[in-house]
Specification:
Layout: E1 5-12, H1 17-29, E2 33-38, E3 43-48, H2 54-63, E4 67-71, H3 83-99, H4 112-139, H5 145-166, H6 179-203, H7 205-211, E5 217-224, E6 227-234, E7 243-246, E8 255-266, H8 268-271, E9 277-279, E10 284-285, E11 290-302, H9 308-321, H10 327-355, H11 360-373, H12 376-396, E12 399-401, H13 404-411, E13 415-418, E14 425-436, H14 442-453, H15 459-468, E15 478-483, E16 487-491, E17 497-502, E18 516-520, E19 523-534, H16 538-547, E20 551-555, H17 560-570, E21 574-576, H18 581-594, E22 597-600, H19 607-612, E23 615-619, H20 624-628, E24 632-634, H21 641-676, H22 682-702
Helix pairs in contact: 3-4, 3-6, 4-5, 4-6, 5-6, 5-11, 6-22, 7-12, 9-12, 10-11, 10-12, 11-21, 11-22, 12-21, 12-22, 13-21, 14-15, 16-21, 21-22
Length: about 700
């Protein structure tokens, strides 16, 4: 049985969360797994299995009133009008003479049959645009806003048509003509959709800007008749192991390794590092970075969706679609909103006409006003637009946040726990002092240290390897094993057992001040004192966190004295030193029960604790375990001020979501009774409804640039 494959379709016509819910429910009924629908990105993703064909799924989506463009096609903004804009301008041409007929000096515009024929094209556009979607949503049991628009505009149209037939030769006929109401409702809602569509796309601009970092073309190097030939090709056609030529000004199209040449590359868009990085033979390059000067020939190791840039884009898109817990309230209300509004509209008509003896025309207009002023879209847009803007702004600042739920959780934390090595410090260790115990040559000791630490991913080990590499020789070792948080074990061909790790793990260590020891057959043969430098932004970021009321804690495996000295320098309020991974996990569990907390770490030994924290934070150069265990990743790990920015942005995003939801609820609670009491005609109601969406989206767009205080 073939495994299910992830498929992404581009779908036009989805305008709100109800639309997304309709499509989601339809695909889930077909048995599809991992269905994710983003009306903002206009994408529908799912696992395509053998039971379903892509054609059937596309047909199902089309039958709901939406349009499948194709698998993973990009909707490109062009100068030409979009289909939605064409419908709006077409409707506007017919609506304007109807709307202004009472002021225009054309008596023939007052003729009922003229108004009917002017209204029909707009009514047809409305039926085609809103009707199919409305019917599809009703079939799926998730009625959307289009249901309200169709009921309202159709009621006005057929009431006018019946009145025209019954009173054609009567002077009272004008009391029954509301063709301009039908046309105006449809046109104003289309206008709202156009503004909404343009505005919503602005909240998700970060993904498009990241995608724009991918070059469209690349210079492919090939051999023919013993000579190199360079051909410009589409980057989508590149394969793993292809050789690519890069000249000054070129964007790197793939992740790869430098074969020859040297150049300075600007990696700031991905890492946040402002200084160019020199690249020579054997160095790695990343797609999306820019060659500032020089020439390189590289061999592709990752192409297409496998590159780091593509994975970042996918992570941001997935994060933007992940719902925070606060959205559940809005979703619950949106799910029952349309049936409730239809009921209120019917009740308005019944009470107005039968209880308060209001004319049928007036009662009908009040009930239609209730339908078109109601705005489930505002509630549907309140959370996702703010989440997209917040996560997008974070991504632009080299901070990857895994979803709206992470934003919400991080905004609520009041304790931030830090690992020491590689997190608050650079992780660039130097051997401050090497002491040999017994009759051993220093060269042999250095060779052993270099050979054993080569197999470790710990930051200290990496630094030691880098320092020892120029003068060390790699020895043949086997049975290499890492004891997490403690050190490395290895054996040589003669059966000797070696250990490199924390000095406190061997009670017979003769140097209690040493940070690391090297043992041979449980006998200490060398001890090392090492030193690590503090990150330049550490003091500033700790001061900022303290001002924000965040309690800072140091949780490290390093020795007590070093941890306390560092905590004093950074004004960290609490210290837990000499902790192994299990102890770290227990401490995080204890602290988590006291208050919401986040932890920041970068090593393999931090993985369990990062997973246990409410929010785990790691650096882009951290171990794979740390990154997988984290919900926030700082691409520029040297700038700890980014953690302050991430917290402020999370707080501001949550505040924006609450503001949006408040406005959406407040608007509907106030607007519906006003319309029901007859203080708004349907045309003003339609304009008001569009205005409500614009306020919510505008508030989310403001999040992209507004000043962050807390």
């Amino acid at each position: 049985m073939n495994p299910a494959t992830k498929t992404i379709l581009t779908v036009e016509g989805m305008t709100c969360s109800n639309c997304a819910a309709t499509v989601t429910k339809a695909l889930q009924k077909k048995g599809l797994q991992e269905v994710n629908v983003s009306f903002i990105d206009k994408e529908v993703s799912f696992l395509l299995d053998e039971k379903n064909s892509l054609h059937d799924i596309s047909s199902s989506i089309n039958s709901l009133g939406y349009k499948v463009i194709g698998p993973r096609q990009q909707i490109i903004d062009v100068k030409n009008l979009s289909p939605l804009e064409k419908k709006f301008y077409f409707s506007l041409i017919f609506t304007l003479p109807l709307f202004f007929s009472m002021w225009l000096p054309f008596h023939w515009l007052h003729e009922s049959w003229v108004q009917l024929f002017i209204c029909i094209p707009v009514f047809i556009v409305g039926l085609l645009h809103f009707g199919k979607s409305a019917w599809g949503s009703v079939k799926m049991g998730v009625p959307n806003m289009d249901v309200l628009i169709i009921i309202g505009s159709t009621s006005a149209f057929f009431y006018s048509l019946i009145g025209m037939i019954n009173y054609y030769n009567s002077p009272e006929i004008h009391n029954y003509l509301f063709f301009e109401t039908t046309a105006t409702i449809i046109t104003l809602v289309l206008l709202g959709n156009v503004i909404e569509d343009k505005s919503v796309r602005q909240t998700g601009s970060a993904v498009r800007e990241l995608a724009a970092m991918k070059p469209a073309k690349a210079k492919l190097v090939s051999l023919h008749d013993g000579h190199e030939h360079i051909t410009e090709v589409d980057t989508s056609t590149l394969l793993k192991f292809d050789v690519i030529q890069l000249n000054t000004g070129d964007k790197v199209a793939v992740d790869g390794t430098v074969l020859s040449g040297n150049a300075a590359i600007d990696e700031s868009l991905l890492t946040g590092e402002s200084l160019p990085v020199e690249k020579n033979s054997g160095d790695k390059v990343i797609a999306g970075t820019v060659l500032l000067n020089g020439q390189l020939k590289i061999r592709a190791s990752k192409v297409g969706n496998e590159t780091v840039l593509s994975q970042i884009i996918e992570l941001v898109k997935k994060a933007q679609n992940e719902k925070p817990a606060i959205q559940k309230l809005g979703d619950k209300i949106s799910a029952i909103f349309v049936p409730v509004v239809v009921s209120i509209s019917l009740l308005t008509f019944v009470l107005a006409y039968f209880a308060f003896d209001i004319s049928m025309q007036k009662a009908l207009m009040q009930s239609i006003a209730v339908l078109v002023i109601s705005c489930p879209c505002a509630m549907g847009l309140a959370t996702p637009t703010a989440v997209m803007a917040g996560i997008g702004r974070a991504a632009k600042n080299h901070i990857l946040i895994r979803g709206g739920n992470t934003l919400e959780q991080f905004a609520k934390i009041n304790t931030l726990v830090f690992d020491k090595t590689g997190t608050l410090t650079t992780g660039n260790f130097k051997i401050k002092e090497l002491t040999i115990h017994g009759n051993y040559e220093e060269a042999m000791v250095r060779n052993l240290l270099y050979s054993i630490e080569n197999y470790s991913s710990h930051p200290i080990a990496k630094s030691l390897v880098l320092e020892l590499k120029p003068n060390a020789v790699k020895l043949e070792l086997h049975s290499i094993q890492e004891e997490k948080g403690l050190g490395m074990h290895a054996n040589d061909e003669q059966g000797n057992r070696y250990f490199v790790g924390h000095s406190r793990q061997r009670s017979n260590s003769s140097d209690t001040k040493a940070d690391l020891i090297l043992t041979k057959n449980d006998e200490v043969i060398a001890s090392l004192c090492i030193e690590d430098e503090l990150k330049s932004s550490a003091i500033e970021s700790m001061q900022a966190l303290n001002k924000l009321g965040i309690k800072t804690i140091l949780l490290s495996g390093d020795n007590k004295q070093k941890c306390e000295d560092l905590a004093k320098k950074l004004a960290i309020s609490e210290v837990y030193s000499e902790q192994n991974p299990e102890q770290k996990l227990n401490i995080i569990s204890k602290l988590k029960n006291e208050a919401p907390l986040a932890m920041m770490g970068d090593g393999v030994n931090d993985g369990p604790a990062l997973s246990k924290a409410d929010v785990g934070i790691s650096l882009s150069n951290a171990s794979g375990v740390a990154i997988e265990s984290s919900q926030i990743i700082l691409l520029n790990g040297n700038n700890l001020n980014d953690i302050v920015l991430a917290f402020q942005l999370s707080k501001t995003t949550l505040k924006t979501i609450k503001q949006n939801l408040f406005w959406a609820f407040f608007y509907n609670v106030i607007a519906i009774p006003i319309a029901a009491m007859g203080f708004l005609n349907p045309m003003l109601a339609a304009l008001s409804m569009a205005f409500s969406d614009v306020i919510v989206i505008g508030n989310s767009i403001w999040l992209k640039t507004k000043k962050l205080n807390s």
